[in-house]
Amino acid sequence: MPRYKLTIEYDGTPFVGWQVQAAGLSVQGVLAEAVRRFSGETVPVHGAGRTDAGVHATGQVAHVELARDWKPDTVRDAMNAHLRPHPVAVLAAEEVAEDFHARFSATGRRYLYRIIARRPDLVLERDRAWRVLRPLDAQAMAEGAARLIGRHDFTTFRAIGCQAASPVKTLDRLEVETVPLTGPGMEIRVHAQARSFLHHQVRSMVGTLVKLGEGAWTPDDVTAALEAKDRTRCGPMAPSAGLYLAEVTY
């Protein structure tokens, strides 16, 4: 059976998350329905990552198996026609080997977290970034981020209900970038890259880095929190709205 790799973009605001749940609209669910409507087949859509409610994606990857051998561009265009008006788009479709798996074949995942520091409410960026009210010290945040790079036990930055077999992960990149704005305030982007992440790990790390940006924590506090292996030592978890699954590598 032909297997297709899908690269997907979505606004996570109206969804309960990627995964189909007992109630509520999911990204996985609307994709499966689009497949059914164009192909007549009811088949599972397997994703590279299970984003939470309100989390966005510019580079989510999924795969689907179909009985008929469709042209990849037809799969892309037909799915997009049936996805409307949901804020989900298939950016690309390609036929892949039968042993390709969107989740298990992945060698890395990159997330982006956006923070906008300004007093006025966000209008155009509402639900797409975390608004904080005061300017942040990006250099202090970067110094704290450096303390988390590498292979560590990330229990402190792990959701209580995380189902990962081990809290030990290798964080390849945690970079803090300042982006100029045309209007008031400043934007800070946090780039996180690893083979895989614990549940809520990125949002927990970002919330901790904001404590440094506010001047409430020092880099040594980040190291102490990491080494404590204690969820209660973590900074506040950042909201879901600023998080994007940006890229999955294979």
- Determine the mean pLDDT: 96
- Number of helical segments with 4 or more residues: 5
How many strand elements? Answer: 10
Structural class by secondary-structure content: alpha+beta
Query: Cα distance, first to last residue?
Result: 21 Å
What percent of residues are in strands? 25-35%
Rg calc: 19 Å
The biggest beta sheet, please? 10 strands, mixed
What overall form do the CA principal axes indicate? globular
Q: Provide the low-confidence segments as ranges.
A: none
H/E order of the elements?
A: EHEEHEEEHEEEHHE
Helical content band: 10-25%
Q: How are the elements arranged and paired?
A:
Elements: E1 3-10, H1 27-39, E2 46-47, E3 56-65, H2 72-83, E4 88-96, E5 108-117, E6 130-132, H3 138-146, E7 150-153, E8 168-179, E9 186-194, H4 201-213, H5 219-228, E10 243-249
Parallel strand pairs: 3-10, 5-6
Antiparallel strand pairs: 1-3, 1-4, 2-3, 5-9, 5-10, 7-8, 8-9
